[in-house]
Design brief:
The protein has 155 residues and is α/β, with parallel strands linked by helices. It has 3 helices and 10 strands.
Amino acid sequence: MRILVVSDTHGSDSDLRRAILAQPKAELVIHLGDGEEEFLRAKRSFPEKMFLGVRGNCDWGSDLPATGEYAVDGVKIFFTHGHLYGVKSGLYTAVCAARERGAQVLLFGHTHQPYTDYDQGLYLMNPGSLSGWGAGYGTLDLTPQGIVTNLVKLP
């Protein structure tokens, strides 16, 4: 299964649409916050895809949850914007939260810096910001052979 992971769209409907169209095999889109309005519009525009999202620090008045969990093919994913876990200062708190939930994957945004790593059974990914200069997104592939994270720059 391919999952498209985006964050920090900050009003950029066009970049979110471009990312979704660039990944036609993605069955699920996870939005990591700071772009609730675009998230909701994309969800309506692409009814064939599943959408999950959380609120970010710039999603004022949002009813979206602060964190989310999703399990598929025996893999548990924990996702959050990251501001409530202090990810700009370090990943320790977010990693602990993911491990406490038994997750194999931690997805977060907020820093606008793309990042991927593997730490003792936990895959970590921040897709970076999908708006502005250096816009990009991430893909998460769950296969019988394992988990693959990938960072992609928008052309």
